[in-house]
Design brief:
The structure is a homotrimer of 404-residue chains.
Chain A: E1 12-19, E2 24-25, E3 29-32, E4 43-48, E5 58-63, E6 67-72, E7 78-84, E8 87-89, H1 108-111, E9 122-127, E10 134-139, E11 145-150, E12 163-169, E13 175-185, E14 191-200, E15 206-215, E16 221-231, E17 241-243, E18 246-251, H2 254-257, E19 276-282, E20 289-295, E21 301-308, E22 314-320, E23 329-335, H3 342-347, E24 352-354, E25 359-370, H4 372-385, E26 392-393
Parallel strand pairs in A: 18-26
Antiparallel strand pairs in A: 1-2, 1-12, 3-4, 4-5, 5-6, 6-7, 7-8, 9-16, 10-11, 12-13, 13-14, 14-15, 15-25, 16-23, 16-24, 17-20, 18-19, 19-22, 20-21, 21-25, 22-23
Chain lengths: 404, 404, 404
């Protein structure tokens, strides 16, 4: 460990790992409880990957003693993989290791180039746009309408952070935090600054993402964000179930309509399975907070996400129970919109407009649950949110949810 | 300092910083007057930026004691920023630090990807093409006509130099020089070699760019170059004025026509301001040299550029007095053509044709002027060029200048 | 030298240079006969290029004492250049040094971006597609047909190897080998794993490429591969001749038809020469092996390639005797198909379908021949293959060979 330790007066330890403006870049670094003479078994470790398409990718692994996870500053501060007491969190994509944005051409394959690097547990879609690729109309530098290709899920996951720092809060209790600043900006284009803090506490089963997205322009601008939280084996398995306080559920298209009866149940890996996507509205508690979870077959292990419906009002379920080779995976996707093409979401009034200098804040918690008791408590909590509410399930695509 | 010093016989000190063929690459280096036991306060400093989208960008800062400027070998030997006796030269783009070409996809956003890295004081547009993006027809490897996208302002600003060296001339007087070779080449494509020298002398207010662009093909080929010289605050301000020996001035489009009465005057930052572009023909002196300048409101500070009308016959003025956040900026743009789409400029006979082995040479001087006296002298000089010539100002776009 | 030497028990020395999964990357390394106390003059040398568009390109040069060649792990394990007893193997492209894939945008210039990095002696085209650029229809993640651009010659040459190792076999006799694993994969896309071994023996005139391409998907998938083996001066010269056991020869297009009479003869560099391409079926020996060679004018030097017609049944000849500046070059191109657009080759039944887990294996030998005697023997051998077979030469493009 090396860094500016300021124990005592200010009980927080801070280490800057990257700061473009100040010319700071630290290739390898780590800190652990031992550096503070504290009990426990937690650490933060930073290194740089080498070779292949991972060459030059920075990763930061936080291990709180029970839960560990790996943040990728080089890929927009996404979270690659996690593990809680031996339970892997994330999935096995055909793309095995983190891909440096240098190797991603978002425009490739008709705007699907994003998929060449898609393997994260948690990846943000956005910020200028997200969702299906396709043509949108922008105003160019000449003030003229210009048709441009919006590529799948936008740019943020393929932009490296300009600032990266770690903080260890020592009082009132220990908190481990990785912070990053990612700019999605261009001359005559969007200028969005995302400041993220990803934190956890020793031995907890939870990590918390706090993102603040600021419009740095002098004019209003659009913003979209969706958290693509993906789970594969072992949580996802034949008999696994999705639990959430569903208010409305609609299939995205005919293909999803085929499986509407069992939209919340998962089958085994099935070669050739074509993805099914469901657009949902969830119910929240008194303050608008809600929770969704994936439970394994025998309800002994689960993963959940918690968020505010006022921040992330639209919830998408991605069922992609294709073969293991193809990436057997399901996704919990809370967002500011559904992942349809931006032009459709705009028409539906589901694209955020940020005033000059305005900041959109999102908090998302991801937890892992081990043990029947613990999973049962989680189920109860989610069911409690549904009290008095009936789920409306549409058998066919619904006007306004998906383009027709 | 380390390098091959050859004082005495050959009074020039040379340091090779990059040479792909010889496998030379120097990450950090500097030299100053002290290394030669000379008086003064000049130096040349080379370093590599780290982190974010600046990761791996090489920059070379030359400080002559009064004027300093930063060359970016990684971005085609453009000049990022400058400063003269405390006066900043350049502008504040929404894109804050130099962006590595790895992060630029010129094809993105309908061919506007160039804008994702646009923040230089002086950036070359070219060499195979420049100007607005759009479709052009090339002859492909099969000898067939093929429609291809020409992207905004071409490729040269996003190609790293293959050779970079610094030279310190000690006799007859000290000259500091940064030299680079940038190739814009492809199999079955253009093969243009640009050799540039960017130099200055101790305590001078001027830097000189000398570019030689050679067609390495065995057949004639087209070439375009335009020097996009950009100024923001503090020189650009409400009341700042552009001074140049205008012979003809025409608005590019309706939007520019709106402001034709005050095309040479600048207002304050104005959110939502849509750029206005003016196409001009300037008057030169007996040898064809001319000069254009931006003066601040109270005429105490100015920046000027000098060039030859035989080398750069077309002069474009870019007014983009948008908000500070959006990049409050104006551009002086001498070029071999106007920055319309290449197909239009070709039709107008304004695209250079280089014979096999032929070299096109351009010299451009950029100066800074501080003090009312000094600025007055500059104005007088430019007005002197206009003697006997009347400016013709077109109120509407002119056929042949802009596409109609 | 440093590595795991295991002389004695297992008479093979292995050095891992890159392994993404294990976090291994070796920047510089070499091994030679001296490290084993052996006679000879062979070595393997690994280094990383610096500067320009070659920045970060890894190259491995194998010198067997007579034949040397340079493998580029960063560019899909292609072979840049070779030399046999002073005879250069390869060609002089306008693109002078190996270009890092970071600088290649395959989508650029209407899908011709591949040409920006094309300068290898041996470059693989493939694996998901190869040949002329153009639109193809894929099934996207939603199970819908989507039109995408297939770019010239596919992706494999611009993907860095994820694993690179060198092996020196000491028994029964010395063999020098460079091995690499390159993945061409994407979520919802192809997932092809190419494992290559490129090997030679001390003082031999031959290098051997053994490629195994495995479909890692759970469903059948298409695969294409073509070995673009290119020769320029001094082998290629006015009077040089191509010798191969031609069964059928057809011009690709009208332009090639113009030169059908002398399709196997080469003229001097000719500025403005438009490429001529011939599609051929060759004859093999009893086991299906065949050989093609380029002979210099006075038949004292030659280069040959040997391969199996069951692995690479289609043979393309590329005549590009343009000026030296433009890349005076001819290509021997054995492939799983002709290099027409994939959609045409598919229609003709010439695209390989790999079952899940199936591997396609290709072995290709490249040899150099010096001395009239040696060249004569080579000619005799190739003529021997033709025994009893007559060559059918089509004067015009043939339906089924080229699109009409």
């Amino acid at each position: 460990m090396s860094g500016e330790k300021t124990v005592g007066v200010k009980p927080v330890f801070k280490k800057v790992l990257t700061d473009v403006d100040r010319g700071i870049y630290v290739e390898s670094w780590e800190v652990s409880n031992e550096d503070f003479g504290l009990d426990g078994r937690w650490c933060i470790k930073k290194c740089r990957l080498r070779g292949g398409t991972s060459e030059g990718v920075d990763i930061i692994t936080v291990d709180n003693g029970a839960l560990s996870f790996t943040v990728i500053p080089t890929r927009g501060m996404g979270i690659w993989k996690g593990e809680f007491k031996g339970l892997p969190l994330g999935w096995e994509s055909p793309v095995k290791s983190p891909v440096h944005p240098h190797y991603i051409n978002l425009e490739a394959r008709g705007g699907l180039g994003w998929l060449d690097g898609f393997n994260e547990w948690v990846v943000r879609c956005g910020l200028g746009s997200l969702g299906a690729p396709g043509i949108d109309t922008i105003i160019d530098n000449m003030g003229r309408r210009r048709e441009v290709m919006l590529t799948l899920h936008g740019r943020i996951a393929n932009i490296p952070a300009s600032e990266v720092k770690c903080r260890v809060y020592l009082e009132p209790s220990v908190k481990l935090s990785v912070e990053g600043v990612v700019y999605e900006r261009s001359m005559f284009g969007p200028n969005l600054k995302m400041t993220t803090e990803i934190s956890t506490t020793p031995n907890s089963n939870t990590l918390k993402i706090t993102d603040r997205i600021e419009n740095l322009k002098s004019t209003p601008d659009e913003m979209q964000i969706l958290y693509h939280c993906n789970y594969g084996v072992p949580l996802l398995e034949d008999g696994a179930r999705l639990v959430a306080p569903f208010h409305k559920v609609a299939p995205r298209d005919e293909r999803a309509a085929e499986g509407i009866e069992s939209f919340d149940e998962f089958g085994p890996p099935e070669s050739g399975f074509v993805e099914q996507v469901y657009f949902c509205k969830l119910v929240g508690d008194g303050r608008g907070y809600t929770k969704a979870a994936l439970l394994n077959r025998d309800r002994t292990r689960a993963a959940s996400i918690s968020f505010s419906l006022s921040e992330l009002p639209y919830f998408t379920v991605w069922k992609n129970t294709n073969s293991l080779e193809e990436g057997y995976v399901m996704g919990l996707e809370p967002g500011t919109s559904f992942p349809n093409h931006k032009s459709f979401e705009r028409r539906m009034g589901r694209v955020v407009n940020l005033k000059p200098g305005e900041t959109y804040e999102v908090t998302l918690e991801l937890s892992a649950h081990v043990g029947a008791e613990e999973v049962r408590r989680l189920e109860d909590e989610i069911e409690g949110l549904m009290e008095g509410v009936e789920t409306e399930i549409f058998r066919n695509p619904v006007e306004g949810f998906s383009p027709t």
